[in-house]
Amino acid sequence: MIEGAARKGSAGISERLRDEVARGGAPFEAVVLTRNRRVMVSVGSGGRVLRLHEAFAEAPPEVLRAVGGLLSPTGSGRRAAARRAIEEFLVGVVPVARDRRPRRAPSTDQPHLQRLQEEFDRVNREHFGGALPRVPIFLSGRMRRRNGHFSVDPLEIVISRRLCAEASDGEAAATLRHEMIHLWQHMQGLRPGHGADFRRWAARLGVHPRAAREVAWRAG
Fold first, then answer.
1. 139 to each of 112, 124, 172, how far by Cα in Å?
2. Most buried of 51, 70, 101, 208, CB within 10 angstroms?
3. What tens digit of pLDDT does each residue of 39-67 get?
4. What is the CATH number of the domain that holds 163?
């Protein structure tokens, strides 16, 4: 009897969250609460299911409607304010997750990382409506056969340091856009890969539609 009541209460919470998010402009079939501290808000099941960190179970209606505004396809003008409202709610509510592989970028990487971050922000704003989370970007000197990598745990993008230092202008940015498509897939609840959805985004972002590509290197 107690277990059945608990299930009913959980369903009621999910329905309340779904309804408030819908009032903000983003209707979903269901809301699922998670304990993932790296991704507070994500969409899965082909856009039908919204996944929220369990802290949102206690969120006031205006925060839940801000989530709806952030995810609304027609809410581009409201996204900055919605993001601020969500971040203000989460501060102090959700403990900061510790990276299992803490790393500090060397100072020589900073100019490259700044350019990559600017490209990330531009592409996120112009093509994804600002819906992608601002994940950490790092450079790696260990990549020999790969130009970049998208990681789910920890959630981050890694670009080859050699690509930034020795390739022609635009090569590192193209790889970053490639990995951003994988980030979009992950946020949609899809398995990152190079199928039809990846190829559609690749055409929009002007990147190679396959995992491997030829790189234009600077003349030595």
1. 9, 20, 10
2. 70
3. 788 888 778 899 998 888 888 899 999 99
4. 3.30.2010.10
